[in-house]
Amino acid sequence: MHIYKKFALVYDQMDADLHSKRMVPYCNKIFKNFKIKPLNGLDLCCGTGSAIIEFEKLGVKMSGLDQSAEMLAIAAKKTKKFKTTLYQKSLPKFHLLDINDSQKHVQFDMVTSFYDSLNYMLSENDLLKTFQSVHKHLNDKGWFIFDMNTPLALKTIWDEQVYAGVKDSMAWVWQNEYNPKDKKASVHATFFKKQGKLWERFDETHYEKGYSNTVIKKLLKSTGFIIKGFYDCHTFKTATRDSYRICAVAQKK
Fold it and tell me: How far apart are CA 30 and CA 46, in angstroms?
């Protein structure tokens, strides 16, 4: 997918990283609830690295993975003082091999993925493969914490909606559509960024798929995860079919 290229240059400027930042204090509450003390972690689809920085402040040594070289370039600058390891890899299948043992996967105490990242998996099979890749890269009893848009959110918030914004030297327009048959949504994003006396326009189209709570739980269990929590995101209330965003807390068996 040719996305998050020039978009990367304005991502933080338009505060698109705020959700990921907000997820870290929420994760810290999850840590306390389940007595989780991760020493290290991998942020899947880490984008510009904002969540990595917040986790580092909590004392968790983080690594990041993203398919976008442009996003990772920004993340590298932002996380330089933490000497963060960043991997350019694409989902669903990814392999991070130990530099001292090419037959062994790098493993972490925790893997996170925030803000619709897993909704970019447009089939159950791809979502399953992603869960399997995460499972391989977790230590025994390691934790997988992620949030996702629900079909209801895509139907209600996205369908036939147009959003626009202006900030500093940029502007954007989002045109959204939702197909209830396959539970897939698209957003056609147009950006305008001031370059000297001129304005540059660039466009990207993003696709997401919503999955029912039942399907997500089924895929996690089939991969070998124990579901410890399945919440209405940012709360500790059990997610329902009326939730707009879920947060799953799963542990490797």
Answer: 20
- CB neighbourhood size of 216 (10 A): 23
- Residue 167, CB half-sphere, CA atoms under 13 Å: how many? 12
pLDDT, tens digit, for every residue of 183-214?
999 999 999 999 999 999 999 999 999 999 99
For residues 128 and 222, the answer to whether their CB atoms sit within 8 Å is yes
Q: Say if CB 64 and CB 80 are below 8 A apart.
A: no
The CATH superfamily holding the domain 152-209 is S-adenosyl-L-methionine-dependent methyltransferases (2.20.25.110)
Q: Report yes or no on whether pTM surpasses 0.90.
A: yes
Query: How many Cβ atoms are within 10 Å of 21's Cβ, its own excluded?
Result: 15
Contacts 24+ apart (CB under 8 A), 28-37: 28/58, 29/236, 30/145, 30/229, 30/249, 33/229, 33/236, 34/143, 34/228, 34/229, 34/249, 36/110, 36/143
pLDDT digits (tens, 9 = 90+) for 56-68: 999 999 999 999 9
Tell me the one-letter amino acid at 206. Answer: H
Instruction: Give Cβ neighbours of residue 9 (< 8 Å, ≥ 6 apart).
Output: 70, 74, 193
Task: Say whether domain 7-149+212-252 belongs to CATH 1.20.1250.20.
Answer: no
Place of tokens 């997820």: 23
Going 188 to 75 to 99 to 31, the CA torsion angle's sign is negative
Domain boundaries, the chain: 7-149+212-252, 152-209
> Residue written as tokens 């709360």?
235
